[in-house]
Request: fold
Amino acid sequence: MTRLHWIPLTALLLGCGPSEEDLRRMIGEELRSLQQHEAITGAQTIGPYSPAVRAGGLLFVSGQLGLSPETGTFPGPDVETQTRQALINLGAILRQAGADSSHVVQCNVFLTDIRDFPKMNLIYGGFFPDGRYPARSTMEVRALPRQAVVEIAAIALLPQSADRH
Reply:
């Protein structure tokens, strides 16, 4: 429940509640508290964005390409190799935030060729504990950064021990 709920409506209507300036300040504080988040850094990015952002009990992981963190290149041109590496990269970010693949609740998978879906799906399925598959959307896109063939983004529900807010 927000702090604003304690102000009776009649007090506001009759003008005997907080001043307009106080209300603006209280609303501003409430909105700022809802926007608090923490960026998870350490993973390499290819642009001006955070690899992941923790907001409350959720972790929003940016789309991961199949780039090797050691070399900055793809370990192979095929969808299987790039999917495997994208999931390894996703797992590293989850671990840094105190989570693992069992905490993932939703994924978005982008493929440059939807005919690669069965190959991607085979590798993807092995990343999650049996029966704990997240919700997922898979879509074909015209192109991905660095001429990647797959990109995977995720949202995880952090375990209580990892939730700092």
